[in-house]
Amino acid sequence: MLRGEEFKKIYLEMVVNDDLVVDVGASNSEAFFEGLTSFNAGHDEVDLFMVPVVPGAKEQAESILTARMLAAMGVEKERIRVVFNRVKRDVSEEFPEIIYAAESTGEFIADPRCMVFENDIYADLADLKMSIKVACEKLVPNLKEIKEGLRKHASSPDEYYRLVKMLNVGKKAESTSRQLDEAFLVLCGGGYE
Prior knowledge:
Order of helices and strands: HHEHEHHEHHHH
Strand content: 5-15%
Distance between the termini: 43 Å
Number of domains: 2
Structural class: mainly alpha
Largest sheet: 3 strands, parallel
Radius of gyration: 20 Å
Shape: elongated
Oligomer: single chain
Strand order of the largest sheet: 1-2-3
Number of strands: 3
């Protein structure tokens, strides 16, 4: 639980830092909102409120509530943006409730282009302790060597599975990076061609 003194520290960090990302988990969202409302226009130090949502009616309802609470606090529509996460195929089919709420209330932005696809690359990146940028730089140019290593280490399970993850990441890194860049552009109010 986020306590008042902890929120003051976070708020001070927001005041003194121009480039800061504050990730408020679901378990702390109520306390964070209480902290924001304890200051006059407490939301003024935040340039953009990103509201992530995953498929599912309950999850969409919670994200709608979060976005509408921000709007009720006086946060402008342009500063409240939904990110569709774990998309399997089609945002409009998987997230109808949140798209409808954004259109009908006009209180927040839910642009279907601001999405992150479900992708096993993220678990493999975490296991390899590697960023997508490093994967693009180190694995993509070395796919041939990774494949050779797979053939060579087929009888060594640990090394084989590590190389399988490296191959998966190497084959998906560039397209995943592009897709994340496109989502980021939309999130920040731009678009892509």
